[in-house]
Amino acid sequence: MSAYPFLKGHGTENDFVLLPDHDGSIHGDLTEERVRALCDRRAGIGGDGVMRVIRTQALAEFDQAVLELHEPDPEWFMDYRNSDGSLSEMCGNGIRVFARHLAESGLIDTSGPVAIGTRAGIRTVTFSDAGEITVDMGRPVLGRDSEVAVPPLAWKATNIDMGNPHAVAFVESLDQAGTLLEEPDYDHAVYPEGVNVEFVVRRGSQHVAMRVHERGSGETRSCGTGACAVMVASAIKDRYAPAGSTPAGDVTYRVDVPGGELSITWTRTDRVLLTGPAVMVAEGITDL
Ligand SMILES: N[C@@H](CCC[C@H](N)C(=O)O)C(=O)O
């Protein structure tokens, strides 16, 4: 069995195992079963997901094809997998941790914006002097609203795609979501690929708090794409932008998650900018 280097990091306690695989040689070894073993919090390293750090030139055909739809060609690609081994298109906390790792390893120049490839397309990250990282998460796409339920309770859910699917439910109290040990019920016709479900309460003006049940990982302490979906749904509800339109001016919300706090701006040019911390906590060797 080969030995592979790994790193561990988190963004607002949404935690990840990173596998540097610059030339793509471990691709075939990273089975769903191995991802599950790496993410196991008792028998493995533990994490909400695994990110393979690979040069885009070394990507397999499918992911190459995704990136060819987007310009310019980024040097690095975030190959994200949930803790159950399933692939996801995008991870807002993960991409900051991914960028932090590239920066700390001297693999990117952090004096300007850095483009990173994902299955949702290219995302650009910017480093601030204060140590936080801002990700241009692209445009929010609104879909058909539906209902989510934690029986016996059910709520109307706003459908927002941030590169991956989200159902945002405004609740009276975050406790209403219960233990979230089970996946909330959702409309499979609206979300045939599954969905991340966010529960939101208002905390103040342009300030909300959320819990999330992530597709493929269960309840996590934070979700960057989820926080962006929550911000957009809240801004629409607060009439900063009529549904299907953009805000008249840039609008910023604070989004509290169980693992910390994120700041999100929806610009009048329809970009969603996610700002938050990214921390590396460990590194070592694994046989996968
Ligand atoms: N935690 C992430 C999202 C990870 C992927 C998600 N579970 C999915 O399957 O879409 C984030 O910070 O955005």
Structure description:
The chain has an 18-stranded mixed beta sheet that branches. The model has no long low-confidence stretch (mean pLDDT 96). The longest helix has 14 residues, at 224-237. By secondary structure, the chain is mainly beta. It has helices spanning 32-39, 61-68, 92-104, 224-237, and strands spanning 4-11, 14-20, 49-55, 76-82, 114-118, 121-127, 133-136, 141-142, 146-150, 153-161, 165-170, 196-204, 207-214, 218-220, 251-257, 260-266, 272-276, 279-286. A hairpin with a 2-residue loop joins strand 9 (146-150) and strand 10 (153-161). The chain has 2 domains: 4-137 and 278-286, Roll (Diaminopimelate Epimerase, Chain A, domain 1), CATH 3.10.310; 141-270, Diaminopimelate Epimerase, Chain A, domain 1. It is built from 4 helices and 18 strands. Residues 14, 49, 82, 88, 91-94, 164, 196, 214-217, 220, 223-226 line the site of the ligand N[C@@H](CCC[C@H](N)C(=O)O)C(=O)O.
